[in-house]
Write a structure and sequence with these properties.
With about 250 residues, this protein is α/β, with parallel strands linked by helices. It has a single domain, classed as 3-Layer(aba) Sandwich (Rossmann fold), CATH 3.40.50.880. It contains seven helices and 14 strands. The longest helix is centred in the C-terminal third of the chain and has 23 residues.
Length: about 250
């Protein structure tokens, strides 16, 4: 049976309809369905009870990309270069993470999702990498999406290295924020050339991986192997979600 994957969305004010609309990039749905999953959309419009119910129905959680995380969640004032925030989305995803951890369900966090996960677990962010970490490389590339921008090193003993079968990646980079202080429940497993954290895993969670690039868009390549390692990441994630769903179903019998 295809596992149900709670997939977070955002909301925006549509000038034509003059009411909030829900939005999610279609590559997330395509990537999950291609590897045998069924996305279950969780939105900022849902109330707390509905969010909990949706996470309880699901076999896994995907935290997607998007806006900056409100720095109030990690005790900071807004930086002058802070981009748009969506407090309703922050609230929804914080609740989703809390419930997913309670259930022990697989969590895959992507781009903003990685940053949100770090903040939800007690970490902090660079609100604007170019001004707060000027010695680093450019992480918000001007090159087309088809062009790989920088390399990333994967820890040899990590789950990511096992999934990819490699420790060197070439990835795209479309973010101006990044992890500053890493949350204690996470461990770093991937780094950009300048040392910025590009991937994490949960220390005590059964299956929790966060990456800074966009695997749903196939943005990573391994050295000497142009097959998409991101497909392997989604496959491994959905296998974990399928197993979690089966074990959960057995527990209720």
């Amino acid at each position: 049976m295809r596992p149900l994957i709670a997939t977070t969305t955002t909301s925006y004010e549509d000038p034509n309809y003059r009411t909030p609309q829900i939005m999610l990039g279609s590559p997330y749905i395509a990537a999950l369905e291609a590897m045998g999953g069924t996305p279950l959309l969780v939105t900022p419009a849902h109330d707390e009870e509905s969010i909990g119910r949706l996470i309880d129905l699901a076999d896994g959680l995907v935290l997607t990309g998007g806006e900056d995380v409100d720095p109030a969640y990690y005790g900071q004032e807004p930086h002058t270069n802070l981009a748009s925030v969506n407090r309703a989305r922050d609230r929804m995803e914080m609740l989703a993470v809390e419930r997913a951890i309670e259930r022990g369900m697989p969590v895959l966090a992507i781009c903003r999702g990685l940053q949100l996960l770090n903040v939800a677990l007690g970490g902090t962010l660079f609100q604007d990498l170019p001004s707060q970490r000027a010695e680093g490389i450019i992480h918000e590339q001007s090159a087309p999406i088809t062009e790989r921008w920088h390399s990333a090193r994967i820890a040899e003993e990590s789950q990511l290295a096992q999934i990819f079968g490699a420790t060197d990646l070439f990835i795209n980079s479309f973010h101006h924020q990044g992890i500053n202080r890493l949350a204690e429940p996470l461990r770093p497993v991937a780094w950009a050339e300048d040392g910025l954290i590009e991937g994490v895993e949960g220390r005590d969670h059964p299956w929790m991986i966060g990456v800074q690039w966009h695997p749903e868009r196939g943005e990573a390549e391994t050295r000497g192997d142009r097959r998409h390692p991101d497909n392997r990441l989604f496959y491994a994630y959905l296998e974990a979600a399928r197993k979690f769903g089966e074990e959960t179903a057995l527990a209720y019998k």
